Amino acid sequence: MNKEEIKKILPHRDPILLVDRVIEKGNDYIIAEKEITSDNPIFKGHFPNYPIYPGVYIIEGMAQAAGLMLLKGEEIPLFLGIDYARFKAEVKPNCVLRYEIKLKEKKQNIVFVDAKAYVDKKLVAKAQLMLGVKG
């Protein structure tokens, strides 16, 4: 799935659309990626002399990837909670951030997922996310 196909599912748009492509998707998992380029405007302020991709953007990207796994039509994804978030390594410009999301539990319209982010197969962040779907 490319960015244009993603935009048909997610309501997010640049500069806050944080998924560039879906590599693989099943009913209970998704693998997606985001290109972290050096010309990303976030690096002008975070931090000009030592650019690091913000952790909150990594978490939001994982939530968006989870939304792509969950959404079926015109629904709106709702980001409801974060537990056990940990950042394991810095994400620097000019890399590919890979999101791996697995469904953990589903209760009516509430979903819990295990989310991990990698750069070059190295774990850079992980969290448990709670999401909802508003139809």
Whole-number average pLDDT?
Answer: 96
What's the gyration radius in Å?
Answer: 14 Å
How many strands appear in the DSSP assignment? 6
The shape, in one word, is globular
| Unreliable residue stretches | none
Find the CATH topology.
Answer: Thiol Ester Dehydrase, Chain A
Write the H/E string, N to C.
HEEHEEEE
The main pleated sheet reads as: 6 strands, antiparallel
CATH class: Alpha Beta
* Tally of separate helices: 2
> Superfamily at the CATH H level?
Hotdog Thioesterase
Structural class: alpha+beta
Ends apart, CA distance between termini: 23 Å
Strand order of the largest sheet: 1-2-4-5-6-3
The percentage helix is 10-25%
- How many separate structural domains? 1
CATH architectural label: Roll
Strand content: over 45%
Can you tell me about this structure?
The protein has helices spanning 3-7, 55-70, and strands at residues 21-25, 29-36, 76-87, 95-107, 110-119, 122-134. The chain has 135 residues and is an alpha+beta fold. The chain has a single domain, classed as Thiol Ester Dehydrase, Chain A. Strands 1-2-4-5-6-3 form a 6-stranded antiparallel β-sheet, with helices on one face. The longest helix has 16 residues, at 55-70. The model has no long low-confidence stretch (mean pLDDT 96).
Key descriptive features of the protein:
about 140 residues, alpha+beta, Thiol Ester Dehydrase, Chain A, 6-stranded antiparallel beta sheet
